[in-house]
Amino acid sequence: MPVTPFPAPRSLATAPGGAPYDAPVTVTADPQLPPQGYRLRTGPDGVAVTHRDAAGLRYALQTLDQLRAAPDFPDTGYDITDHPDFAVRAFLLDVSRDRVPTRRTLERWLGVLALARFNQLELYGEHAYAFRDHQTVWRDASPLTADDLRWLDARCAAHGIELVANQNTFGHMERFLAHDAYAHRAENPDGFDRGGVRRPPSTLEPTPENAEFATSLVAEVAGQLRARRVNIGADEPFELGTGRSRERVARLGAGPVYWEYVTEVMRPWLADGWTVEFWADVFGDHPELMDRVPPGAVPVVWQYDAPYAAADVLAADGGELRAWRQLGADVEQLRDGFRGRARLLREAGVPFWVAPGAGNWNSLVGRLDNALANMVDAAETGREAGSEGYLLTAWGDHGMWEPPSIAFGPAVFGGAVSWCLDTNRGLDLADVLNSLVLLDGTGLTGAVLDRLGRIAHDLGVPLLNGSPLARALRPDPALPLPAHPEPAALDRAAATLARCRRDLAAADPAAGDGEVLRRELTHAVGLSEFAVELLRARAAVRGEADDIDPATARRLLRELEPLLAEQRACWLLRARPGGLDDSVARFDGLRHALLRAANR
């Protein structure tokens, strides 16, 4: 039976009569093919590859390898023509909140990304690089070093992937600003209020001196890599105009002050012919800036919830909607997905990239259904707008409790739909995971990943940017859980988790990290089962963790400690020790709440 290679090509025809396994291969360059494009034909006369460029040849041979692995190869002739929807198909891995991957983990990621035809990788950076003059900031983080980056850059090149420096330069600078030596750079050195919660300083004051400082950080990372492209971040400067820049913002407007600073950070790179990516969340809200994008600058529109998720929150019209509005989110715009987020850019004719999310963070076991819809929405909008780039993001918000393998499925799907949306939107993700990533002949591990990723939505509590499971374990006054799942929904979640546990015990992933993957997923199931029981206990009293009856609180405390010990053990299977204490410390709020309930 003919096979469909992965990613599914845009054109595939078969005929009786294939090529022998040792058939000669002729390779011809054809400049008339689209960039990265190829044509592959197999038959009794042999194998013919026509390609536009080196990338097209790489992808043609990758496809040929998959065809050769199929038992029907000598009996079926294939005629495949293919090229990508997006020229740049990038993946971003967060290495700053708080999980810094080992080299072995990075190498595993490169295998997954190469399979899915990503051709760019970014490691999102804040403090987790061993900056020469800033040891105070990174000394406890087990940071990536210059040697690590040079090694990774070479490994990326071997896989046809460009490693691009990604260093935030405006917001999300709390790891620097927490130290006395950097406090003078803060917009609000004493912190700020957001969503009714007091928070530590996170935004640089928009000054030329800080732009020079931020540029030096980018330069130190970029100096280890061969790419002439950088991502300077510059997203979510929540404090802009609330502290030291208040007078300037009141006089000139937030948009111009923001853009003046970001332009200052970009200037030396653009002047030297580099391409500079920056997040478009602030820029995209200011139409007065749309004619100011200099050549070489690329706004990247991010949106991490599928349109249906925002629609569900709006329809519920409850605490979740109120909380996000208090945080400044335009939920009505989010309901329109990428089209809403990119509307001003599209109207102004400004080229942009799209950046969906892998749905791994704030979840324990992923939000796969949301991620799939979000990635399709990004691909549709990006194609309509003629976007050159598609950047899939795997963030690590609030300590990155989720195991890395939770993001493997979204990475596979995101690579496929950014290569060719039309032929891959209906991808059998579990099958691809089992056959090409996990190497599980039982078919169980891929099915478990698929099933786990749908629990959050099935709990029936509409949320943005998170799962009820993670919200239950990480109390946040700014984003409290708006409702309790119904008992029937909790029962279904418990049954699904129990089935996943059984299937993992019977699974046989033969990939090099197969046993690591089974252990970390089994632990993620255990944490999720604990979260379900916590939600059940809270629902029984219609309250928070502090309100649970003392006997139940004591039982939950006894169950929590071994789960945290296993969290530490699983972390060290794929990540460096730095950041582990910070990540696990985020369970303290729950532990303290349960202690109060237990001692009541």
**Measured distance between first and last alpha carbons:** 66 Å
Name the quaternary structure.
Answer: single chain
Q: And the CATH topology of the largest domain? A: TIM Barrel
* Poorly predicted residue ranges: none
What is the general shape? Answer: globular
- Structural class of the secondary structure composition? alpha/beta
CATH architecture of the largest domain: Alpha-Beta Barrel
Describe it for me?
- The protein has 25 helices and 15 strands.
- With 600 residues, the chain is of the alpha/beta class.
- It has 3 domains: 11-82, Chitobiase, domain 2; 88-431, Alpha-Beta Barrel (TIM Barrel); 447-598, N-acetyl-b-d-glucoasminidase (Four Helix Bundle (Hemerythrin (Met), subunit A)), CATH 1.20.120.
- The radius of gyration is 24 Å and the shape is globular.
What features would you highlight for this structure?
600 residues; globular; Chitobiase, domain 2; five-stranded mixed β-sheet; alpha/beta; single chain; 25 helices; 3 domains
